[in-house]
Every structure is written in C-alpha cells, then in structure tokens.
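User: For my dataset I need records formatted as: sequence, then structure tokens, nothing else. Please produce one.
Assistant:
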Amino acid sequence: QTCALPICNLNSELKGNSLSKDDDFRLLLQRIANFADRINSNRKFTRRWTHQMVHELKTPLTILKQDVELLTQKYSISSEETKQLNESVSKVSTTVTNFLNWAELNYSGQNQNLHMLRVQRTLEDLKPVWDKLYKDRVNLNIKNDFKVVSDPDHLEQLVNNIVINALKYSTGTVEVTLQQTELTVKDNGSGIPANVIENLGSPFNKGSVQKDVEGSGLGLAWIKTVTETYQWDLQIVSSGMGTTIIVQFPEIVAT
C-alpha cells in the first residue's frame, strides 16, 4: 500500500542520509508536524473524505513506528528513550484509530454484524480488565440480565467507554448497575462540564481536564453516536458531586 503524505518518504531518507543524530530527529519531528498539519487542514470531514482517511492515516502511522525503530537502532538509543518515543507514537496511533472508528460509525451507521447479546456477559467479560487497571474500583450490581441487538464490538465499546471515563475522572468506587432494561454507571468525580454535555457527540469535546488525566473526548463522542445509531436512550446527570449515566435499552419481547 502506498501513501501520499509527506511522512511516508522519511524511511528511505533516514536509511540513505549521512546526517547527524540531531538532524535525523529534526527530520522526524518535521515529518510529524507536517502530518499533523495535513490532518488539521481537513478537520471538516465529508462522508467520502472520512472513509478515505480511514485508510490513508493508518499507513503513515505504521511507517512512523518503523522510523522510530530505525532511529533507535542507528543511534543505540537507551531503552528509556525508546520507551518514551514508542509511547508517544502509540498515543497518536490510538487517538487516530479511535477517531476513525467513531467517524466510520457516525457516517455509516449500523452494519450487518448484529447479534442477540446478553449485557451481563459483556460486563463480566470487561470487569477483570477494569479491576486490573483500576485496582478493583468497579462494583457490579446485577439485579437482572436482559438481551440487546447490537454489533458485539459496539456494545462492548459503549460499556467500556462509559465505565473507563467514570474511573478516570473519579477516585472512589464506580457503581455499575444492571436492572430491568437499564445500564447505570455512577461515579463520585467532579462532574462533566456543562459545555461538554451541550456539545455531546462532537469529537475532541472534553473541556478542561484534570492535570493527571489524559483524554481526547472521543469516549463521550462514541457513547453518543452508538446510542443514537441504535436508538438507545441516553441520560447524563452530572454535578460537582459526581456523574450518573443511564442507557435505556429497548425491551425485547419473546414471540
């Protein structure tokens, strides 16, 4: 696969040049800056552009990872420096991938990969991950289970984004309750800013964030888009005492 972005020519330049270490890294940073400028110049996506960007952006990010590996080998960079470089590239890659996934769903809607899913099973599959990352802060209250019709990835990412956001922006226990046909997630954090709720569904809509928490605002955009796509009711009640998010799923009547 080929790529027309400026960053895609970097690999061959690094292999063939005889520049200093500083020059090589300056070249890498310049390519990253050009890459960012290219993205920013196309912030207002049309549907056609979004689908094209899904493919175009993943290639240069893969090449960028290869360039970092090449530089670390060429200059015998320490493991700590290598780790920092790879973490920076991975952060960019994750943000772009999350944005593209959101854009695909936002413009394409439901796909044909629909299944009858038990919400309790989704929660139980995700809880070990939450416990590992956030030291058993999730309290799961299963009052009754129910089924929903969804792409398995969409339901899992919806639930995961709601709970992870609650864990990231609070310090105490996060209560996750399943009852009737509702999923409720409640935290004791400082709340979601009013302007963020007003613009819910827009990517990179995050307001001011805590100094020790990194976020892109894509989690909330994904939550809003998934619930609209499947016509699930979304309620958000937030104040300085905490946030409660409720997703009301349609009742499936057996025939």
